[in-house]
Amino acid sequence: MSIPNTYNATAVEEKWYDYWMENNYFHSTPNHKIPYTIVIPPPNVTGVLHMGHMLNNTIQDVLIRRARLRGYNACWVPGTDHASIATEAKVVAKLKAEGINKEDLTRDEFLTHAWEWTEKHGGIILDQLKKLGASCDWERTKFTMDADLSQAVRKVFVDLYKKGEIYRGYRMVNWDPEAKTTLSDEEVIFEEKQGNFYHINYQIKGTNEVITIATTRPETLLGDTAICIHPDDERYAHLKGKNAIVPIANREIPIIEDVYVDREFGTGCLKITPAHDQNDKVLGEKHGLEVIDILNDDATLNENGLHYRGKDRFVVRKEIAKELEEMGVLVKVEQHLHKVGTSERTKAVIEPKISAQWFLRMEDIVKPALDAVLKEEDIKLYPKRYNNTYRHWLENIRDWNISRQLWWGHQIPAFFYGEGVEDFVVATSIEEALPLAKEKTGNSSLTVADLKQDEDALDTWFSSWLWPISVFDGINHPENEEINYYYPTNDLVTGPDIIFFWVARMVFAGYEFKQEKPFSNVYFTGIVRDKQRRKMSKSLGNSPDPIALMQQYGADGVRVGLLLSAAAGNDLMFDEDLCAQGRNFTNKIWNSFKLIKGWEVSQTEKQPEASKIAIDWYKAKFQKTLAEIDANFEVYRLSDSLMSLYKLVWDDFSSWLLEMVKPAFGTPMDTETYKEIIGLLEDNLKLLHPFMPHLTEEIWQLITDRSPQEALIIASYPEVVPYQEEIIAQFEIASEVISGIRTIRKEKNISFKETIDLAILNHEQTAKDFDKVIAKMGNVADLSYVDNAVDGALSFRVKSNEYFVPISGAIDVEAELVKLKEELKYTEGFLTSVQKKLANERFVNNAPEQVIAGERKKEADALAKIETLKASLNSLS
Fold first, then answer.
1. Spatial separation of the C-alpha atoms in residues 126 and 44, rounded to whole Å
2. Residues 33-64, buried b or exposed e (16+ Cβ, 10 A)?
3. What are phi and psi of 671, to 5 degrees?
4. Sheet holding 519-524, edge to edge
5. What is the pLDDT of residue 567?
6. What DSSP designation does 712 have?
7. Distance separating alpha carbons of residues 838 and 859, to the nearest angstrom
């Protein structure tokens, strides 16, 4: 079988992905095996692949492919989220471009457009994930608006309502005037912004006296219904019980007292606008104040805005400040740095707004979720530092506002039969609602036509919090075979920015509806940033096109580039050079394979001793690395696992082993060595496959003809077996000796074709197992052991051993002395740094035992080498 000279990533990736799909390797059904299950964090249905998706899904694919190789029944469920706010905004924008306003459509007409948009764009990101090599069970692809998932959402809503956990009430909520919907607290991002502090005089009724208040939002004075002072503030004591006049509105408002007021902040008195501030609302309810709402849903002023009606709030802010100044009541304007709430989705500045909304009580539902992570540790977060974030969110949680003023999404299953706040019933369908409404009203003549479903939709997260359960139909059919087999899932891979939005809420749902955790481990990836540490975004133009990257570097190259620098939980400073490094690794593996397949093999050739010891060494090194890889996988240090594998394949296999066993030019290789090398190559491919699936399958299939049952994707992962630590240590010395010989050849311009002799002063009593390897790799004609230094020879040291290479001609003693002194100075400096570390009690007490042992070995080696160097200096002096 001919091997192409260059590796064609595009052709190979398409070929093997099609092959995997055709043979149904990704599909899972319940069987006798132990399941390993991952559910994908569902990307927005209208989204396209970005670098964060690339990192997250590469990690998931590595985990699922490794589990498949290790004999688990691997199931990775893909899907997309309907993303209410984002999708509705895109559909509204599309319609607007076509000259259609949402307000002119019925709900059904709008949803027809939304479904058309979803069907057109919904599969794009999943198709892009296939190009990455994602081995999802595509037959299980779910969408949060699928009929069965929608039914699950309705059932859960009804269940929680019946338990008294869901309620409807007028509350101060976060209003997004761009999306025209309420948001939960977690969807509001607070940003420090430079604003103004406006000091405004309010006249005291019936006097010439004024009281000055300070506000960042002067437009809201049109909704003022009181001024509040502290009861112990002597400055304002004489104003108790009096009224003030609101500028522009010319409305009388009472001056009230409350200890809530901070006497030291601003002017020490507050304007109270209950409709537009959470704290003002609390004070308003306490003191029985009127509530005057001045804003429309789009943040323009309504009829209470007087002559500013119809104008945007920020336009009014400027104009009202000017009017107040012209009236002579604007005392001063100061610059003021303060935190402003913005919408996580639209970036619009949030307005506090009183509105009738649906809420889910959080007080009881969080308790098992807190215990699961922080007490019992049934769920482990990686890195563990996110336990603190998790604790903070859950211990400071407020009731979840679950209703949204949107049409795209799961319509709230509440049905109104009247205009009153309580004139509704909750049911999974209007048909189920009718008998409930008849019973509640006592009106048996009610018909379906008398009922009207709540116009609002549920928060998107109210469907995705059920994801690990609903994708296996565990809400509608709680005891079905699949939910019992696949749930709880194993690992969740996601970003820390949705630790509360999604992760914690899935934990809530797991214990509420299955009385069990939804997953065992949560691995938080870092955020992909550019070299300037900026988060990648379209607006900054600093996010590369993932598809273009894969076309240039190959999917495997991009996967390796991302993972080599993606330490658990730490942000990734993305650099395209990382992808180039991944591509170079791909080429290194390909070229090594070509070298092996290019060797002529002879049945009669005897296996050289050098090849035998080299293979024994690599088997030990492979096992040691495999143990490291497995240990790092246990704690989700995938970057460290890949780096260990990278060094094993690049350095130990390609650069050392293949050179040690390579036959001399024109000489065939023995069958035994070739067979062993192929076996070791196959073991390497098994370890590499989760990280580089396409390249490894290509080489695996080129090694020999394989049936579909013998494909690499379903091969058996290597098992860790005992290995010789001693042979690894022996090779470390041998490799240093070979490097020393090569250095002398380079410095003295001795051609590698020219043989040399090597004499060894073996103070270390080093084993002679690798002598044949040293002789071969150094082209040494005669390797001998001596009791004394060899005069007239160049020398180098490894530990306390000294190695002599006799050369023709006189040795420059002065030059040798300079070299030895430099080497001694360097080694003494190295020893000092090691001893400082070992003298540090904190390091010794906290570092792992093997790390301490490694440092002590460095110390011993350095001491031995210093002794040898000093002896060499004495002999030349």
1. 10
2. eebbbbbbbbbbbbbebbbbbbbbbbbbbbbb
3. -60, -40
4. 380-382, 519-524, 489-494
5. 65
6. G
7. 9
If residue 851 lies in a helix (H) or strand (E), which one and from where to where? helix 849-876
- Compute the half-sphere exposure of residue 486: CA atoms within 13 Å on the CB side of its CA: 25
With contact defined as beta carbons under 8 Å apart, do 475 and 469 qualify?
Answer: yes
Q: Which residues, including other chains, have CB under 8 Å from residue 464's CB and lie 6 or more apart? A: 42, 81, 144, 502, 505, 506
Helix pair 609-634, 725-747: axis angle to 10 deg: 120
> Going edge to edge, which strands form the sheet with 414-416?
424-426, 414-416, 452-453
How many Cβ atoms sit within 10 Å of the Cβ of residue 515?
8
DSSP string, 801-819: EEEEEE-SS---HHHHHHH
Residue length, the chain? 877
H helix and E strand count, the chain:
28, 31
Give the tens place of pLDDT for each residue, 164-218. 999 998 888 889 998 888 887 778 888 888 889 999 999 999 899 999 999 999 9
The neighbour count for residue 159, using CB atoms within 10 Å, is 16
* Whole-structure pTM value: 0.85
What's the rounded Cα separation, in Å, for the pair 577 and 558?
Answer: 10
pLDDT one-digit tens code per residue, 388-443: 999 999 998 989 999 999 999 999 999 999 988 889 999 999 999 999 999 999 99
Yes or no: say if 757 and 806 are a contact pair by the CB < 8 Å rule. Answer: yes
Domains of the chain: 10-142+464-529 (3.40.50.620), 181-351 (3.90.740.10), 546-723 (1.10.730.10), 724-811 (3.30.2320), 813-877 (1.10.287)
